[in-house]
Specification:
about 60% helix; 2 domains; about 10% strand; ABC transporter transmembrane region fold; 21 helices; alpha/beta; 12 strands; Rossmann fold; four-stranded antiparallel sheet
């Protein structure tokens, strides 16, 4: 947990100010009982009204100063803990954004959401408590003991019996609660997962009439978390009543033995009243410590989970500079900015396996894609088509072989440079909450209105956009639920087009389109992408028939390379795919 406190460095002045203010607040609280004892023993007993007013005024000043210190320290500690939470969330989010898909799969989306929200909130709360109580509680406890002993050392023996018992109780509760707090965070991950699946899959759930089943899943996860929370809270709930009970019995003992000492002339009434106040301060200091011990175990578990994310080494290492290459184009503003290129792609004996897989997803794949040509990739389900594009985007790194773009290994190219060269349309279209124009500009935030309109027109999206109430300013709901699957695909294609990259990568991006729209779109794309390298992953033979080069994949290996008519004669795998989709008349 203390490892995360390095992010408090920019708030070190605020932390120092809080400790100073808390110190003076504790001093004022420790000084007040002594002043009260003086009023009783010297003012009231002697009937000295002037002395009472003088000391009373002094008490008022001390109380006001102590209250001011308390208010200011609360403000600074709240601001510091909130800033700490903001920094921590930014660090975790930035780290997660740099993860490869392998790290995403390791943690899981639901767990990463919990770690970025609930776990950081736990750390934020404990930082505020530490700033307010870590200095104050020991000062109040130690200072209270010193002041109590100064009033009557013999009567202080009562405290000697109470404090060890309380300390033992706090340690016992902490030891019992720590494993349960860890279990709670894991079960919170599970609840988050079930809830997320239930919300994102609501259409499928209702279509298959599985609402009751999902309710049962959620209730089980919810009940599991609730039972654990109840167990840990039962353990933690022991602290407050036991401390209160011990405080009351301690005060009874002090009054009992203190009364005897007053009768024997060893102690004055004012000193006994001050002694009781100091004992209460000691007990409340221990109560504050117990609150810390309630929060710290859970925060410690959260800190471990946060550190797991921050300490995870990304399997994909980015480079800061690019090897000098006269053919490489880098976006303006990047430290390296050589001459522009055309976008040559070379896969050289590429082999890749997913973690834990029994066999490679791709094995010994080699081919070249040239600018101005369309390279299509076709194959059965699971043949490695989408994996091929993921490797080109460097969402994963190859196990062996290399992928070159303009004769530069993509592993030696900064990721922002690599991805600026590629306009990617994923297999599953993803839209973001916002307007249609904002979603298209996601590919190029500096695009003009004319460029956005042109991209929408090429993507065959202009017609349905014009029919919407606000045109390009129409709002897309979360997840794009107010547009159809085909409309999502066309907006995703427009987003890639407005980028005007050197390489276009279409991952089965025409599957939701009707044949008429598909044909119009491919014709428009052919003209728009004439100078770029285009890689099209597709299931439909009609989509790849006119490609300049077709790569046929079968179980992760290249089964054939060539044009449509060539492959019909030379590649059995391609011939089977074609015969399963086209009639004899169409083949002829």
């Amino acid at each position: 947990m203390f490892k995360l406190f390095r992010f408090l460095k920019q708030y070190k002045l605020s932390v120092a100010a809080v400790f100073i203010l808390v110190f003076f607040q504790a001093i004022s609280e420790l000084y007040l009982p002594t002043l009260m004892a003086d009023i009783v023993d010297k003012g009231i007993v002697n009937g000295d009204t002037a002395y009472i007013m003088t000391i009373g005024g002094r008490m008022l000043v001390v109380a006001v100063l102590g209250t001011a210190c308390a208010a200011l320290s609360s403000f600074l500690s709240s601001r510091t803990s909130t800033g700490f939470g903001k920094i921590l969330r930014n660090k975790v989010f930035t780290q997660v954004e740099n993860f490869s898909l392998q790290e995403f799969e390791k943690f899981g989306t639901a767990s990463l959401i919990t770690r970025t929200t609930n776990d950081i909130t736990q750390m934020q709360q404990v930082v505020m408590l530490i700033l307010r109580m870590m200095l104050r509680a020991p000062m109040m406890c130690i200072g209270g003991v010193i002041m109590a002993v100064s009033k009557d050392a013999t009567l202080s023996l009562v405290i000697v019996f109470a404090i060890p018992l309380l300390a033992a109780l706090i340690m016992f509760v902490t030891k019992k609660g720590m494993p349960l707090f860890k279990a709670m965070q894991v079960k919170l991950d599970r609840l988050n997962l079930v809830l997320r699946e239930g919300l994102t899959g609501i259409r499928v759930i209702r279509a298959f009439d599985r609402v009751d089943y999902e309710k049962k899943r959620f209730n089980e996860a919810n009940r599991d978390l609730t039972d654990t929370a109840v167990r840990v809270n039962k353990i933690m709930a022991v602290l407050m009543p036991v401390i209160t009970l011990m405080l009351n019995f301690t005060i009874i003992a002090i009054i009992w033995f203190g009364g005897i000492r007053i009768d024997n002339g060893y102690m004055q009434v004012g000193d006994l009243m001050a002694f009781i106040q100091y004992v209460m301060q000691i007990m409340f200091a221990l109560l504050m410590v117990s609150m810390l011990f309630v929060m710290i175990p859970r925060a410690s578990v959260s800190a471990v989970r946060i550190n797991e994310v921050l300490d995870t080494d990304c399997s994909i290492k980015d480079v800061l500079e690019i090897s000098p290459c006269p053919n490489l184009r880098v976006p303006s503003g990047h430290p390296m900015h050589p001459d522009s290129t055309k976008g040559f792609i070379n896969f050289n004996n590429v082999t890749f396996s997913y973690p834990g897989a029994e066999k490679p997803a791709l094995s010994g794949v080699s081919f070249s894609a040239r600018p101005g040509e369309v390279t299509a990739v076709i194959g059965s389900i699971g043949s490695g088509k989408s994996t091929l594009l993921s490797l080109m985007l460097r969402l994963f790194d190859v196990n062996s072989g290399s992928i070159l773009i303009d004769n530069v290994d993509i592993r030696e190219m900064p990721q922002d440079v690599l991805r600026a060269k590629i306009g990617y349309v994923p297999q599953k279209s993803v839209l973001f909450t916002g307007t249609i124009a904002e979603n298209i500009r996601y590919g190029n935030e500096g695009a003009t209105d004319e460029e956005v309109e042109h991209a929408a027109e090429i993507a065959q999206a202009a017609e349905f956009i014009s029919q919407m109430a606000d045109g390009l300013e129409s709002v897309i709901d979360q997840g794009g639920t107010n547009v159809s699957g085909g409309q999502k695909q066309r907006l995703s294609i427009a987003r890639a087009l407005v980028r005007r990259p050197e390489i276009y990568a279409f991952d089965d991006s025409f599957s939701a389109l009707d044949f008429k729209t598909d044909a119009k779109l491919r014709k428009a794309l052919r003209e728009e992408t004439a100078d770029a390298a285009v890689i099209v992953v597709a299931q439909r033979v009609s989509t790849v028939m006119d490609a300049d080069q077709i790569i046929v994949l079968d179980e992760g290996k290249v089964a054939g390379t060539g044009k449509h008519k060539e492959l019909l004669n030379t590649c059995g795998v391609y011939r089977e795919i074609v015969s399963s989709q086209l009639s004899l008349e169409e083949l002829a």
